[in-house]
């Protein structure tokens, strides 16, 4: 098992030595049973936050959600052989007191929590597959919610009455789609019906929080079933109204050849098929708080794609920089396939397709000269270097210069 798993098990051992009950809980148990490596290992215990801090000492514990009953426990330095050496890289393990949630007032969070039994703690969780505990001492799954059965049947189902659970916390509707998408599960009929009924209430959830779940859906290999779920369950027109009118046949075609699983390229692909892509991207950026990097990648793909069909009419030095941007390249590749399939802009696209097949040192050959070469040619340092190197690069890409000697000649005979 991984260092974080060993760390969580050490923490559980310590709590048990101190006379408490403690289990692995939630996502890590689900992922382990699915044969996936868990992102993190959360511990649930009957020890109160004060008792947890008593067992591990104030220095090793962070009271980050003490009012919700969650304490972060840092690794013991004596166990540091398995831990990264730099203190700032050490992640605390979340240790949470068994609890039941109070009344939900705002559609997102309970107004209070009460410490309770392991069973109550399982019952307050969202989906049966997220409600399992694992007791590492006896190597035993503790299942109060029939989660194991649903895992076996690949079913995502709320714990308890679906309508009530979604009324308490509306974000759970989108979490349902996200889990079903990323692990490739079906949503159970009564759970799905409740979402379809309450879909409009997702609007109380912040755009940023919606963006977090949508990124995970779109980065998934099962993105297509995620998009289908969003549409079928009526969530699409609230979480991504820009695409609500989109033809599902087109969406399926777009993702047919999808090999890469990154959020920005999935979003770029969808927007490429949208008539108002730029305006849509601006709206989505604002709602989901896309990062500058995410916006850069999507924008580059949206700008690059229309140039591909005319690639045979413009200088190669104008097209090549679009194609060598790794983050964008994949999107263009798919956009090309699609356009070729539809018989659009054949000549330019064929040229681009052919270029995308080239080995990278042919598509993006090393420059003929660099700055030190210019210094050796006694060119005085200054902004002229960039001008010369850019010009040489453009002529190289356009096939007008192909050797160092030709480039040196060009530098010597041109008045810069
Ligand atoms: P991952 O971390 O891979 O997204 P996870 O299952 O660990 O999956 P988290 O959001 O980290 O999901 O939450 C940890 C656990 O807390 C869940 O497994 C679930 O039992 C519970 N939980 C999280 N969010 C909710 C919620 N909105 N309502 C009820 N229970 C929740
Ligand atoms: Mg988690």
TrEMBL record:
Protein name: tRNA adenylyltransferase
Cofactor(s) needed: Mg(2+)
Domain CCA-adding enzyme C-terminal: 266-409
CDD domains: NT_ClassII-CCAase
Family, as annotated: Belongs to the tRNA nucleotidyltransferase/poly(A) polymerase family.
GO biological process terms on file: tRNA processing
Keywords: Magnesium, Metal-binding, Nucleotide-binding, Nucleotidyltransferase, RNA-binding, Transferase, tRNA processing
Domain tRNA nucleotidyltransferase/poly(A) polymerase RNA and SrmB- binding: 184-244
InterPro entries named among the record's database cross-references: Bact_CCA-adding_enz_type3_sf, CCA-adding_enz_C, NT_sf, PolA_pol_head_dom, PolyA_RNA-bd
Keyword Amino-acid biosynthesis attached: no
GO MF terms held by the record: metal ion binding; nucleotide binding; nucleotidyltransferase activity; tRNA binding
Lineage top rank: taxon: Bacteria
Transmembrane segments: none
Pfam families: PolyA_pol (PF01743), PolyA_pol_RNAbd (PF12627), tRNA_NucTran2_2 (PF13735)
Domain Poly A polymerase head: start-end pairs: 22-157
PANTHER family: CCA TRNA NUCLEOTIDYLTRANSFERASE 1, MITOCHONDRIAL (PTHR46173:SF1)
Metal-binding as UniProt keyword: yes
């Amino acid at each position: 098992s991984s260092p974080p798993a060993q760390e969580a098990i050490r923490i559980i051992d310590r709590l048990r030595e101190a006379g408490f009950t403690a289990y692995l809980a939630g996502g890590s148990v689900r992922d382990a049973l699915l044969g996936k490596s868990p992102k993190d290992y959360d511990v649930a215990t009957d020890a109160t936050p004060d008792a947890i801090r008593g067992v591990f000492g104030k220095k090793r514990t962070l009271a980050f959600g003490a009012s919700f009953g969650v304490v972060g426990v840092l690794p013991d330095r004596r166990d540091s052989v398995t831990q990264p050496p730099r203190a700032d890289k050490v992640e605390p393990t979340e240790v949470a007191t068994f609890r039941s949630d109070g009344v939900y007032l705002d559609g997102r969070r309970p107004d209070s929590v009460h410490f309770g039994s392991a069973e109550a703690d399982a019952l307050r969780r969202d989906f049966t597959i997220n409600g399992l505990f694992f007791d590492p001492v006896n190597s035993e799954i503790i299942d109060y919610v029939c989660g194991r059965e649903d895992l076996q049947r690949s079913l995502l189902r709320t714990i308890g009455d679906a309508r009530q659970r979604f009324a308490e916390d509306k974000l759970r509707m989108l979490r349902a789609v996200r889990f079903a998408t990323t692990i490739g599960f079906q949503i159970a009929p009564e759970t799905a019906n409740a979402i379809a009924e309450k879909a409009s209430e997702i609007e109380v959830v912040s755009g940023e929080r919606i963006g977090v779940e949508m990124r995970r859906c779109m980065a998934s290999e099962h993105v297509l079933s995620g998009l289908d779920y969003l549409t079928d369950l009526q969530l699409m027109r609230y979480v991504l109204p820009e695409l609500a009118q989109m033809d599902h046949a087109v969406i399926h075609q777009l993702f047919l050849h999808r090999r890469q699983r990154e959020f920005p390229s999935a979003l770029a692909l969808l927007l490429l098929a949208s008539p108002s892509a730029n305006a849509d991207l601006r709206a989505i950026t604002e709602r989901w708080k896309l990062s500058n990097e995410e916006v850069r990648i999507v924008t580059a793909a949206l700008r690059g794609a229309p140039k591909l069909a005319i690639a045979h009419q413009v200088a190669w030095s104008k097209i090549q920089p679009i194609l060598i941007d790794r983050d964008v390249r994949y999107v263009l590749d798919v956009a090309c396939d699609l356009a070729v399939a539809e018989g659009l802009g054949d000549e330019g696209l064929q040229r681009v397709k052919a270029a995308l097949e080239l080995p990278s040192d042919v598509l993006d050959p090393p420059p003929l000269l660099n700055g030190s070469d210019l210094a050796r040619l006694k060119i005085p340092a200054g902004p002229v270097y960039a001008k010369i190197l850019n010009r040489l690069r453009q002529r190289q890409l356009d096939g007008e210069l192909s050797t160092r000697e030709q480039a040196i000649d060009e530098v010597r005979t041109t008045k810069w």
